[in-house]
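Project standup — Tuesday

K.O.: blocked on the structure for the chain from last sprint. Re-posting the sequence here as requested.
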Amino acid sequence: MALLESGEMYLEAIYVLSQESSAVRGIDVGDYLGYSKPSVSRALGLLRDQGLIIRDNDGFIKLTEAGEAKASNIYERHTVLTRMLLNLGVDEETASEDACRIEHYISDTTFNAIKKHMKEHEEA
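H.V.: unblocked you, prediction finished:
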């Protein structure tokens, strides 16, 4: 089942938060994204049903192996696209916001071409 943009945003948020702390809760995700508790609860339930996250007995959220793979891919898209836009002279806030929108729609073929180009042309 394909993940919608909102699901990808939640996965990316959980991924980023889990890099900072091993204890990620729904309230942390809501605060990070600026979403209400009911919205977060519903989205996390859908991600759980898709086998992308699990919740332990204390309510902490962990990415499954499939969730981790998907989230790290989304995060990589965000960081590469942000870097590309920064290299083009876009300010940091706009670059990050635009990368966030682009990352959900760009094809793998185009993203891989951008990634290859960035690797070949960025200064070491």
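K.O.: great, moving the ticket to review. The beta strands are 53-55, 61-63. The domain at 5-69 is CATH 1.10.10.10 (Arc Repressor Mutant, subunit A).
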